[in-house]
Amino acid sequence: MTGSGKSGGRIIGGTRESATPGRAGRRLTMLGLALLCLLTGLTMVLGYANKARCTGPGFDEWGRSEPSFQERSYGLVCYSDIQKLWIGRDVDRHVFPYVHGGITEDGSLYGGVVEYPVLTGMLMWLGAMFVDTDAGFLAASALLLAPFGLVTAWWLGRLSGWRALLWALSPPLVFYAFHNWDLAAVACAVAAVFVVHRGGASLRRRATLGAVLLGIGFAFKIYPGIFVLPLALYVLTGGCGGAEGVSRLDVRGALRVAGAAVATVVVVNLPFVLAGFEGWLASFQYQSQRRVDLSTNSIWYWGFLPYHGSPAFQDVVGLVSPLLILASFALACWLGWRRRERTGTFPWIQVSAAMLCGFLLLHKVHSPQYVLWLLPFFVLVSVRWGWVVAYLVADAVMGIGIFRWLYLNMIGASNGIHSSFAAQAVVLGVWGRAALLVGLFVAFLAARSPVDDDEEAPRRPLIGGRPE
Fold first, then answer.
1. 3-class SS of residue 17
2. Does the UniProt entry include the keyword Transmembrane helix (predicted)?
3. Comparing C-alpha atoms, which of 217, 211, 216, 246 is closest to residue 229?
4. Is 116 left (phi over 0), alpha (psi -120 to 50) or beta?
5. Residue 453: its pLDDT value, please?
6. In which element (H, E) is residue 211 found?
7. How do residues 358-375 score in pLDDT, each as one tens digit?
């Protein structure tokens, strides 16, 4: 039961949580938001400079940087998927994605098909439109992606105040802002939280718009789509403090949220389905057929090294991994529902963060830039700083170690666990990160969100112990 009683606090887990300062105590001025965006921009400039170390100085006939592109990208830890995928997906040939391509029996893509959802494919096509080298592609893609990083900073600042410095000044933004095209999906996920909690309309309308944004995020990278479920449960239970005075669940509102997300995904994808169904389908087939190997960089590879060459093992992982992910989603939602019974509010942001932890831990692919997906939740959910620092350290150790280890492997140098610091860093990073994801799953679900605090502020007692 929600305890918004005479003391102005809430009952959580049997104890009264004191009222914390609301939006007025955390709101950034326009100057503060501008400074936050400026710092984010400077961090992304460093990120671009880091990746640009891999470009040039010369280029071959296909526009690939030389000399020794691959060795430099691993050895100098300046690798990016953006620069790498200039060759191999017909990006350099300016082929419009998905329409004319497909996937071969051995899992190779052809005809302009890329392994990402359609809006990311469009970003790739746009970034390549006026360039003819991988260096130009990296620069153009950075220009396309930078605005997403800036608006993410702005929205996080509006939602959580100076805690958004975790985004603006974070090492992952240097390492991975322009590693892949993830900033667009991250911006959609944060935008959804922003409109739900700062939209100014009715809960149904705010949540419906949030679901549309999550559907658009799905069309960039799949992961924002998983947050539709906790958002629907948030609407189902009446939103912030919704248990009080609500006699029945808002089933209609929850279905409207789910329907808006599905409709958005259909509308965005339908033109590509009609123009080239085989090419559109190939991007999903590629991911579903992807084998667990070194490039997937997940616990399924590092935890089962002797078995990854076995077709039977690949089949088992292809079944077990999604089942465990779904189980982690169900557990997060159930624990969120239990918390809602105590507090009156379904903690959809915290549940979304926990679901993402389950996905990152159990999915067969864990690319380095996925830390960008998690980073906004460190801003939006008030977990202890120790969790944040520990995860960022483990991620940095992993991110640097894996590329140095790949470099040693490429040049034939000794790279065993007993003779290579890079190999030791990979082991520490992989298992340290995995353990932290388990801990964060629990920590997120137990933590408060400053976003919720702001929403509750108007409902707190004002005079004589009576709520407004």
1. strand
2. yes
3. 211
4. beta
5. 57
6. helix 203-218
7. 999 999 999 999 999 999
How far is residue 275 CA from its own chain's centroid? 29
Q: What is the mean pLDDT of residues 47-67?
A: 96
Quote the CA–CA distance of 270 and 259 in Å, as a whole number: 16
Per-residue pLDDT, 23: 46
Q: Which amino acid is at 114?
A: V
**Total residues belonging to the chain:** 468
Vertex 213, ends 210 and 215: CA angle to 5°? 110
- Cα separation, 385 vs 167, in Å, equals 14
Please tell me the distance from the alpha carbon of residue 115 to that of residue 267, in angstroms, as a whole number.
20
What lies within 8 Å, CB to CB, of 142 at 6+ separation is 44, 48, 51, 177, 178
The C-alpha angle with vertex 128 and arms to 124 and 132, in degrees rounded to 5, equals 150
Q: Where are the domains of the chain?
A: 10-288+298-458
Measured CA to CA, the distance from residue 112 to residue 101 in angstroms comes to 6
**Residues 178 and 81: beta-carbon distance below 8 Å:** no
Q: Given this model, what pLDDT does residue 419 score? A: 72
- Which residues pair with residue 17 across a beta bridge? 10
Amino acid at 446: A
Q: Are 376 and 152 in contact (CB under 8 A)?
A: yes
CA angle 333, 450, 208 (to 5 degrees): 55
- Look at residues 68, 100, 65 and name the one whose alpha carbon lies nearest to residue 83: 65
Q: Is 389 exposed, middle or buried (0-12, 13-18, 19+ CB in 10 A)?
A: exposed
Report the pLDDT value the prediction gives residue 9, as an integer from 0 to 100. Answer: 40
Distance CA 102, CA 423 (A): 37
User: What would the two tokens of residue 50 be?
Assistant: 């880091």
Under 8 Å CB-to-CB from 367, ≥6 apart: which residues? 81, 180, 297
CB 102 within 8 A of CB 282: yes
